[in-house]
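FORM 7B: Structural annotation worksheet

SECTION A. Query
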Amino acid sequence: MEQQTITQLGDQLFNALSNCHTVPPLTERHPNITIEDAYHIQQQMVSRRLEAGAHVVGKKIGVTSQVVMNMLNVHQPDFGYLLDTMIYNEGEAIPANSLIQPKAEGEIAFILKQDLLGPGISNADVLRATECVMPCFEIVDSRIQDWKIKIQDTVADNASCGVFVLGDRAVDPRKVDLFTCGMVLEKNGEVLATGAGAAALGSPVNAVAWLANTLGRLGIPLKAGEVILSGSLAAMLPVKAGDNLRVSIGGIGSCSVRFY
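SECTION B. Predicted structure
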């Protein structure tokens, strides 16, 4: 794909984000777009956000569950960048009209105390480099019309990042079983989804190691102090103004968020 087209598409996605509107799927307009092209478009979109004053605070892993892989017909996760403008505090209210077509995911967040630069990063390396894990909501959002996405669409759209909320506890990852820990996701007091750590590539630690090794081959480290969102543990739930959500993860804690 020509650089001019990459720049135009990245700018379109940035403008859609800024003005809360959607664009037609990139894969419909450019059927030959590759995943590599999509990451270049993502870089353009993110660079526009950085030029507007945002700062990178971490990274997210997406497409970690088999259900989503099957939906997108891919067999690998993707990643995007977390920015300081995406952060909300535990229990804080999020204006629904600041997002376009939001959906909530319950996840485990890793807070790093050491850099991780792959390739060659093992699960043991991930655990040594992690300060703590926290319960988390990722509120994904798509600038692609009606969520009609293929893997190239979501990658270009910064892995469908919206905003995120970290929970009320920080736990040593060596003191909890991140493979079997159960998750319960409630919406307006009703349990609508359950899951376990194993839903994220078999373990959220696997997901972080995958990210460190994938980015390491590009010369990009995971940095000390960064937040790494390790992937959804259950299906996404659509949200709207008036909704109250709570996620509880065994041995780690809970996180709540409301929309107005």
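SECTION C. Observations
The radius of gyration is 17 Å. The helical segments are 3-19, 26-29, 35-51, 66-72, 123-129, 151-156, 204-216.

SECTION D. Sign-off
Analyst initials: ____
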